Amino acid sequence: MLPDNLREHPVAAAVEAFDADAVRGGKYDRKELTLETPPAKIVSVCGFLKYDQKFVRLSTVTAVDRFPEEPRFEVVYHLHAIEPQQRLRLKCRVRGEDPVIESVTSVWRSADWYEREVFDLFGIKFVNHPDLRRILLPDDWKGHPLRKDYPVTGTRV
Amino acid sequence: MSVPETPEQMAAAAEGAQPQSGPRRMVLNMGPQHPSTHGVLRLVLDLDGENIVTCQLDIGYLHTGIEKEFEVKTYQQAVTLTDRVDYLAPLSMNLGYCLAVEKLLELEIPPRAQWMRVMLTELTRLNSHLVWLGTHALDIGAMSMFLYCFREREDILRIFEMFSGQRMMTSYFRIGGLALEPPRGWQERVKKFIDVFPSRIDEYEDLLTENRIWMGRTRGVGVMTLEDMLDLGVTGPMLRAAGLKIDARKDEPYSSYEKFDFEVPTRTESDVYARYQVRMEEMRQSVRIVRQAMDGMPSGPWKAEDQHVVLPDREKMKTQMEALIYHFKIVTEGFRVPAGEVYQTIESPRGELGFYVVSDGGPKPYRVHMRTPSFGNLQAVPKMVEGIMIANVIASIGSMDFVLGDTDR
Asked: How far apart are alpha carbons B237 and B388 in whole angstroms?
């Protein structure tokens, strides 16, 4: 459900008109629009935003670990429309046990490396990703460093 | 088998070998220690003769886990981490981070600090573009450019040293304003540099712009379409060289860039030469901005009036009990930032630099993600070099102006 204060916002209203189930929440804070969508809808929402709402650029994909909350991970997409200039943040909550979400590489090719980075550092798997390997860390690295339960210092024994 | 020695023997051997080996495929590792990869980038090239069939990139050699380290530093301490990400444009990194946290704090920055930030980030852009121009020309074979560019870069680094005490890892922008009061006599130093610099740009252009070898090596090389670049995450001068007038300083002005008069240069050829032209013109525009900032520098405080966030003046700290308490609190435990999240983008010399900062209300960031321009730009390398000759790879990747610290974080 879209919060009432967002009904005035053209992009938020358009996404809700496109698919009422695709909006789980949202906020307009510090002049930035955030929409939350269920993980199952991410590819269709992104496709709609790119082709219908002119968000031609995917600025970045990242994640936030809300450990010990459940669902544990927030996968965060920052979208950018050039004409007219606007930005949008999309969020998906993903469970902590064996986290999986659909890849958006079919919508923007740039998602390729962004998603590999999230996979590498958070261990979130992206289904239908063409080449899901570690990107920053060595291939034989154990663990995912940006998870909150991964220590900052100390050596592995 | 005997080794062919005379030309006749070689010709015979080549004639005999050709039909059997078919297409002469080989895999070539370029890097991670190749000088023209500017750091530690590794390209795995699958070659057919001298043509590139496929290209795969291997990055991560410089990964230092900076994003993780943000989570154990207080907001103010973390400024020093940002310098080390894009080490050729440390002040741009400082600015992006400070603006993001200031947006979370909803902190008003006094005009003098904002203008000072604009002036110094533009000098950083000059610094970064000079390193790019020198090394890019060196890669292509114009050795003397490197020496000229580093001569001017030295002047800029001396200006940074005057302001912050550091040549490279300046950390001069802090949350709430600047780290130190601008030093006495900075106007003369900056003026001296800025008066001379435009003639130096003319000098570079004399050496390169009409140079037949330079044109031969750069024109029509590394061409990419605008659609491909947008789709692959490319930003900055590369997009502008393809005809798209995109610049965060104009589109989403920050730190009072809207008060400055400057042009966003564009070209349409989208080749290495066009990117060179765009960056040269950007240098001239940066000079314009620095001059405007210098001439119109507002007076007044150089840090925000917020005792919970900004350290008190040294004099106050020594004479007032309250100021001493605030000083102690800020230094020992940092300041609390209201819960929330922001994504702040700025135009770094390389393209769109974004800071995604999440706060849980505590004195340390809950999560900081850096959307670095080099990471996005490098994704496009395979698309750019596949199908071209191996000698052009160096010119093509040089035109991207990536920094590996910025890529790997």
From this structure: 22
